[in-house]
Amino acid sequence: MRNIIIVKLQVLRLYNTSMNYVTGRGTATYDGTAIACSVVNELSQSIGCRTLFSTHYHSLVEEFSHDPNIRLGHMACMVENEDKEDPTQETITFLYKFTKGACPKTYGFNAARLADIPDDVIKVAMKKSKNFEEVICLENKKQRRT
């Protein structure tokens, strides 16, 4: 993870002109997300170069959804048998089409199924994911109140 962050910062130093294209990628931890947020902000507000920044972290998407320099997009897919209670039944077909706007949801459980992770393990992961989401939502509500 440290190498990724160093590379990101080197990219900022090397390509800090609006005539360059920069690609970047987020990291999984809070500090990584914070650094990614700062990097995107620097690219958008100071450098102004075209950037393709791929992330699964919706907090970054929300943070920059109203930035006039940033356009959100995602790879479209078709979902069959969509089942919020049992994602092991979903079938995802990726359409290889770039679409405007933020991705409405993640498909990590489908990726796990494609990797032949057993359904019972995916179901446990889904419960844990819901728990994480509830905790984060509660923390966000507490922060808004202060």
The strand line-up of the biggest sheet is 1-2
Mind describing the biggest β-sheet?
2 strands, parallel
Overall pLDDT score: 76
Helical fraction equals 40-55%
How many DSSP-defined strands?
Answer: 4
Oligomer: single chain
Low-confidence stretches: 1-10
Query: Number of folding domains?
Result: 2
Structural class by secondary-structure content: alpha+beta
In N-to-C order, the SSE pattern is HEHEHEEHH
Q: Using the CA coordinates, give the radius of gyration.
A: 18 Å
- Cα distance spanning the termini: 32 Å
Beta fraction? 15-25%
Overall morphology: globular
**If helices are DSSP runs of H or I spanning 4 or more residues, what is the number of helices?**
5
Would you kindly provide a written description of the structure presented here, covering whatever features stand out?
This protein has 146 residues and is α+β, with helices and mostly antiparallel strands. The chain has 2 domains: 1-71, no CATH class; 72-146, no CATH class. The chain is built from 5 helices and 4 strands. Helix 2 links the parallel strand 1 (21-25) and strand 2. The longest helix is centred in the last third of the chain and has 27 residues, at 119-145. The two termini are 32 Å apart. Residues 1-10 have low confidence and may be disordered.
